[in-house]
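ok so i was messing around last nite and threw this chain in just to see what happens. nothing serious, just curious
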Amino acid sequence: MPDGVGGPEAAMLDLIYSYLLQRYNCDYYGHISINQVGSDLDEFIVKRGKRIDVNIRFPVTEFCKLNIHEQNKIRVEVIHSALVRIAEKEKSLDIPSLLKIKKEIFDKHFEFEFTYKVYENHAINQKIEILIQPGPDKFNFYVSVKDAKVPSCKMLVYEGMSNDYYIPIIFASGKWKNRDHFVIRDKRKEIELHIFLKECRYELRNLTNYPDPPFFEMMKANTPPEIRERVYKDWLHPLPPGISGIISHSPN
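result:
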């Protein structure tokens, strides 16, 4: 719709709300889909088990001319309005909690850091956390190391695109090699991130036969277009012909 508030930048707020709804015990639904619609479509709330879909009218003028901060404030208003309507109709969300979530987002100026995964080694009293800082144009991923609950190291290990599709694929598992060496592995067996704890550094190891691990590189936020095109073709290469044909929109 004209002056709709969607776009790739909205993924930041999707992630922020998914974490804060859990924190405030408002995570009754497994999936909430909010659609901003124009006057040509009806507003509705449709529930299917733990999934709920909402169409909401929220007129906005010249949205694209606003700066990113103002755009995100409007996006929050759209999301909040839709969640309040769910709360009023279904009684499954707590409106005071929704107001607290909205206030926290504005108070923190959209700057959050969430814990995605935690690995604990009780034998050496060490904890490793994978942290996410969602932004409008990229998601930053950090590895944080705590020895006896005291932070000893924090390093940026990945700058990903602003969506959550790839997160469980790239950060699939982790394991200690020894007390000073931790390894993060992806689900596709493309890469290993070797974290050297004492030195507070990491090494990316490419497990593929390609110059760059295709999926890992393709999901990066700032991969140059020519490299993204190359790794996309590399990613398609091992797929069955029918699947790769559908994805690339080429005839089989």
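not much to say yet. The radius of gyration is 21 Å.
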